[in-house]
Amino acid sequence: MTEQNFDIIIIGGGPGGYVAAIRAAQLGMKTAVVEREHLGGICLNWGCIPTKALLRSAEIYHLMHRAAEFGLKADNISFDFSKIIERSRKVSAQLSAGVKHLLKKNKVTVFDGTAKLLGKGKVSVDGKTELKAPHIIIATGARARVLPGLEPDGNLIWSYKEAMVPKDMPKSVLVVGSGAIGVEFASFYNSLGAQVTIAEVMDRIVPVEDAEISAFVRKQFEKQGMKILTSAKVVKLEKSKTNVTAHIEVGGKVEKIVVDRVISAVGIAGNVENIGLENTKVKVDRGHIVINEWMQTAEPGVYAIGDVAGPPWLAHKASHEGVICVEKIKGVADAHPLKTENIPGCTYCTPQIASVGLTEAKAKEKGYQVKVGKFPFIGNGKAIALGEPEGMVKTVFDAKTGELLGAHMVGAEVTELIQGYGVAKSLETTELDLMHAVFPHPTLSEMMHESVLDAYGRAIHF
Amino acid sequence: MPLNVLMPALSPTMTEGKLAKWVKKEGDAVKAGQVIAEIETDKATMEVEAVDEGVIGKILVPEGTDGVAVNTLIAVLLEEGETAADIKAGAVPALKAAAPAPAPATPVKTVMPANTQGAAPQKTVALLPQKGGRIYASPLAKRLAKERGIDLSRVSGSGPHGRIVKSDLDKAPTAAAAPAKSSAPASSIDAKALADAYGIPYTLQPNSGVRKVIARRLLESKQTVPHFYLTVDCELDVLLKIRKDLNEGAADFKISVNDFIIKATAAALVKFPAANVSWTDDAIVQYTRADVSVAVATPNGLITPIIKDAANKSLKVISIEMKELAAKARDGKLQPAEFQGGTISVSNLGMFGIREFGAIINPPQGAILAVGAGEQRAVIKDGVVKPATVMTVTMSLDHRAIDGAVGAEFLQIFKKLIESPMSLIL
Predict the structure, then answer these.
(1) Containing H/E element for B223?
(2) CATH number, domain at B251?
(3) Given an 8 Å threshold on Cβ–Cβ distance, is B147 in contact with A427?
(4) Residues in CB range of B54: below 8 A, 6 or more apart
(5) Are B262 and B310 contacting, i.e. CB atoms less than 8 angstroms apart?
């Protein structure tokens, strides 16, 4: 077995791993990345990016149907399903190649293969090559969680992966779980004409979001023709050759629905198996590696970042953790632990959802006296001009200090707006700073201003 | 007639200083005795008070300005019925005369800086150096600091580029760090609130400026200076005999035991300068002269007048100087230069029968000697118990600047000088 020495080895080339690698290289470390499948990880190859490509096709298709509304003519609107999928794959391929180039440019050595921790700073790649480094970052990510009875079979029951590259367009789909992954697929298949049912075990869809946002999304989904079942438990899936009969328990009664395909989107599980954790003191709790605020595990010199280290399961959180972890290792003076409440989250269903910080209910639960502001899309000129009058911007402030505790948005392009509140929260602005800030006209962002004003009874346009 | 406010001198040698802060704005009404500005040198911050009632008509030197010469016109106070238009007439000549000493030869009244005059020392705020210029803090941190009465200039920031963020304030002490705002809510263990809650009868004595300064400086010292303590017993019998001889027949002075201690302290520092030091981040400051600050209790609180270069002064001179300084201290008439500075402190509670105690270092000094009572004790010498007059001295040291063995060696020299004091007289 050949042995090579590095300053740092990163296991996994996803948005956590490759960003950590580039930062480490920038800081002058001899850096290795071990990737078993494809650089860019799930995010770039089977997650965030290809789904955005799919959803863009669905959005344009949807807008084409609305052509007349804008004074345009379009006849015989249709789509080529395989071309939609093909485009999505091309986008992923392009970006994955981009990551490869970035790593090369930063002189990061990439090993294609499966890594295993051997203890004492050693990592094997496919049992053939041995790497050694004083610092090892585990960035192995996560995979779809599998519930008994809901196991994806690649044919009738899909995980996100099959749902992304179907051969044919199903006529009806049951989406189990209404987190970000679930509702994005629900929107995609619904836009292209499938009859979509969502079954959510909690009492509302997108349950991590603010309750008002959940209710708003539900109303919009139902308006688009989706069937929403909440407090609903899928008890049995009966498979035939071509379809599935789902037994869903809602309020004590079992409802049967027949669908072409089932998409299981019931959460994710960390990739902690077969990576040699048994050769270290690394602790695992409920499928995720236990870390401290500097991403250090119980084993000195071994760190974990991103999905494998627990929620929130977001690519940008993984990247940020990678940077913090490496900077702490190198003793960069300005390294700061990540504040979870400042991490925005975006969901690309139709309508889009974006949020940062505490929901109104969470804030109250934490004992804050809150001031809540809301502003609807219907009051915004740009939203009307875009033909997107459905949506809302909600802000939650600490009544005592004026601290922006949370912001919650639903509607067109809100995923591009949330970072305004993200910066505001990171800089610890108060309501006054936001009120004093000038928001350009005509933009959707004016609603962000109005929502803040509304929290203090000063909204102008509503 | 508009009143001129001039840049005050903190000490007779001060030629310029920094205008740290305007407490009042243009247009603010002020009463006599109200603080209108803060002046800073590297050693101290001093408040400037208005001596008359009026409205701040114009601020001529913006806050944060460095190197403002003493007696420069810094602001103009308007009396009742006057407007900004009156300023030009009154102020301009004074501006031109700003150079050496604008004696009030003109009818323009001069607002005297509070601290250079009369019973003012208690107004002098001698602080550890404050951060100058703009304070970087998040908007939320600024608001919380205001609400909690926290002085942001004393909070170290953990945010990007040292920016003060919310979490830094959670670590900052509130009431103690911001004595200027006594109305600010104290910590959870507020004595007054507890006394109210348990019905313990009490009276309130509002904190004087001096009390607040003492509280702040001692808290800072005890929290930020790593103290350690060395204790030594000194036999006084020879010293007492010599003292008696010296004082007998002397009409114009009476040397005290403390005068010997001051002299011995300075002489020991000169012999062993490794103990005559202060800590700074970049270097250890080793003084080449020994100035001894002597703690004096006054009705207003503790103050420490200085016997400068005590090693080169005779006991007689030290004794006479000390008497004058103590009297001035009690009357509140010490000039800042007479109590600011010093390279070591001596605190003596022997007259109260205190056997021994540990004192808090007076920053930026590196050490303080706490002197107990000289008392008859049984001393064993060569296996025989003998009576001797013994005084216990405990030295508190800043371990950043002085190591244990260094402090011990200093005390050895000090003890020898006290026990064989002839060299102090010669």
Answers:
(1) helix B209-224
(2) 3.30.559.10
(3) no
(4) B3, B29, B30, B77, B78, B79, B80, B82
(5) yes
Whether the predicted pLDDT of B185 surpasses 60:
no
State how far residue B142 is from chain A, nearest Cα, in angstroms: 10
In this predicted structure, which of B189-193, B278-282, B367-371 has the lowest mean pLDDT?
B189-193
Q: Which residues on chain B place their C-beta less than 8 Å from a C-beta of chain A?
A: 138-141, 143-144, 147, 158-161, 165-166
Domain termination residue (choose one: B156, B190, B208)? B208
**Residue where one domain finishes, among candidates B125, B148, B171:** B125
Residues B377 and B364 in one domain: yes
Chain B nearest C-alpha distance from A401 (Å)? 7
Task: Kindly list the residues from chain A whose CB atom is less than 8 angstroms away from the CB atom of residue B165.
Answer: 428
Domain-located, residue B132: no
pTM of the model as a whole: 0.60
Two structure tokens written together for A282: 């690394």
Q: What is the CA radius of gyration of chain B?
A: 25
Section A230-256 average pLDDT: 95
Q: Which of B140, B158, B161 sits opposite A403 (nearest CB)?
A: B140
Q: Is residue B377 part of a domain?
A: yes
DSSP A219-273: HHHHHTT-EEE-SEEEEEEEE-SS-EEEEEEETTEEEEEEESEEEE---EEE--T
CA distance A16 to A141: 8
Distance CA A306, CA B172 (A): 33
Using pLDDT thresholds of 50, 70 and 90, give the confidence band for residue A190: very high
3-class secondary structure, A210? coil
* Shared domain check, B221 and B250: yes
pLDDT tens for residues A370-412?
A: 999 999 999 999 999 999 999 999 999 999 999 999 999 999 9
Stretch B236-261: mean pLDDT: 90
The minimum CA-CA distance between B158 and chain A, rounded to whole Å, is 9
pLDDT digits (tens, 9 = 90+) for A414-442: 999 999 999 999 999 999 999 999 999 99
| Structural domain includes residue B421 | yes
Residues of A in contact with B166 (CB under 8 A): 403, 428
Distance, CA of B262 to CA of B318 (rounded, Å): 8
ipTM here? 0.70
Which stretches of chain A sit within 8 Å of chain B by CB? 334, 336, 401-403, 427-430, 432-433
Does residue B184 sit in the same domain as residue B325?
A: no
- From CA A26, how far away is CA A322, in angstroms rounded? 13
Here the CATH number for the domain that contains residue B34 is 2.40.50.100
Same domain, B183 and B311: no
Cis ω on the peptide bond leading into residue B226 (within 30° of 0)? no
Where does residue A257 rank: exposed (0-12), middle (13-18), buried (19+ CB within 10 A)? Answer: middle
Find the domain containing B185 and state its range.
139-208
Q: Do residues A232 and A239 lie in contact, with contact meaning Cβ atoms separated by under 8 Å? A: no
Pairing mode, if any, of strands B3-6 and B73-78? Answer: antiparallel
Number of domains in chain B: 3
User: In chain A, which residues have their Cβ closer than 8 Å to the Cβ of B138?
Assistant: 427-429
pLDDT of residue A1: 64
Q: Is A135 a catalytic residue?
A: no
- DSSP code for A436: H
Of the pLDDT bands very low, low, confident and very high (cuts 50, 70, 90), residue B119 is: very low
- Count residue pairs from A and B with Cβ separation < 8 A: 29
Verify whether the Cβ–Cβ distance B140 to A432 is below 8 Å. Answer: no
Residues of B in contact with A427 (CB under 8 A): 138-139
The sign of the dihedral angle between the CA atoms of A408, A412, A413, A417 is negative
**The two three-digit tokens of residue B147, written as one number:** 């609400």
d(CA A367, CA A361): 10
